[in-house]
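Quick bug: Putative general secretion pathway protein A output formatted oddly.
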Amino acid sequence: MDELNTFYTTRHCLIRDSMFSTLIQEQWLILQGGKGSGKSVLAQGVISAWPYRALTISPLNRKGYLWEWVIIADSQTDNSLAGKIFPVEKLWEELYSAGTVTHGSMPLFVLEDGHRISRGLVSTILAFMTMMPQARLLLTGIFNRRQQRELRVLQPVWFEIPAPDSKDYRKVISSHAGIGPETTNTLPEQFIRRCMRRCDGNLHLAARLGGVIRRNKMEEEEHAASIIDASLQREALRYLPAPGRQGLTWLLLLVLTVLCGGGGAYFARPLSQWLPPLTTLLPVEFSRPVSTHARLMAETMSTNESLSLLFSVWGYEVDKGEAWCDQAYRGGMACLSGTETLETLLSDGLPWVATLEVDSASFPVVVIGGGENTLTVLSGNQTWILDKAWFSHVWTGNVTRMWKPSPDGNASITKKSSTDDIVWLDTMLSRVLNVEAEGTGEWSSLLTEKVRQFQAQNKIKVDGVMGQLSLIRLWQALGESPTLIQERGTI
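Here's what came back:
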């Protein structure tokens, strides 16, 4: 096993000390770093210095879809919870009832590899903030962009472990090889560089390399201060992964791009830089045949293709064979089908699928924008600007639209809502309004005032009730929901 026990580089020591002092003041923080960057070592360092009880918790996957939390370490030997397994949604409730939080204590919970929890991580953090205000939480992981965006909404203190440099590698290898700091020429710089290319930021691999050198030197009964010769260097590097040929790969991609670009410029017409081709349809008399719009009907979409396009507008790539309304829950959305007025849809400001009927033929389009006299729609790979009067004439009134409810899936948030929904609403409104969040989980008069202020800013009926339209505007303000493109400044 590649061990990196109780050894810290200079930067690790600075991060560890800073994390410890931060946790004294802040309720929780996040530690992010690549594979083998030393997240567990830093967390263990904080736990070792923590004066109260500390529990290390890791995600556990069962049956490929069921996630649970398992306690892998407990600093308290009496009534230790090590080995206990808890459901994801009941972790803090079970720990609280188990007496992990006592009067005057400040327990530390370390959630390792939090990035493995694809759903429910944010609700887990919100539940902790509500149920255990005097406890402390350290969340570690390798979070992707979506997870980072969701977590940063909660405004945590964020620590990120930088990529190790040659000094870090030298210290790790020397320490595990038993080489003293006074022997400066034992590890050649070229050898360190080759190690860096193979380890790719994983200090555990560097520790493995140091262990190999230690074993070989013990077998050969050489002194620790002797210079490591080329044969021992080659032998040690054999225990590391082969170096990636990224330079050659990028060179081949560059050559291929140049060839394809040259061929495209020679054989094809110029392509649009951003949106699909834009075609403007002029108003026509309703008494005349609508043959002017034959181009719009030339390449019509199926129902699944239109839903796949609507998912794409929301930022999700869904194959048309799987694009069904009942799959919207996977993205935390609700999908509704029915009839609605054009004024209501434009007021909501969300894209929708509209069914048009021309010459007894029905076909869907995705409406993504509107103005005083026009609507912008997508159909296949084309973008069209339609006359609003003509659209109203051929539109059947049938719509399919998606919207994002509360994290608990509710269409509104009131004083009777769950604690998670109220904490989320308070946190998100405070972020948008740039004010401080209460974090109590209770509906207060201050929260009502925040709702009213947000509604006034977004020109919504000011009633202090966080209904569907207010939720839509909040998700849009947070950048988590698309908005209709406004043409000519009016909708």
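Actually, after a second look the formatting is fine. The longest strand covers residues 361-371. Closing.
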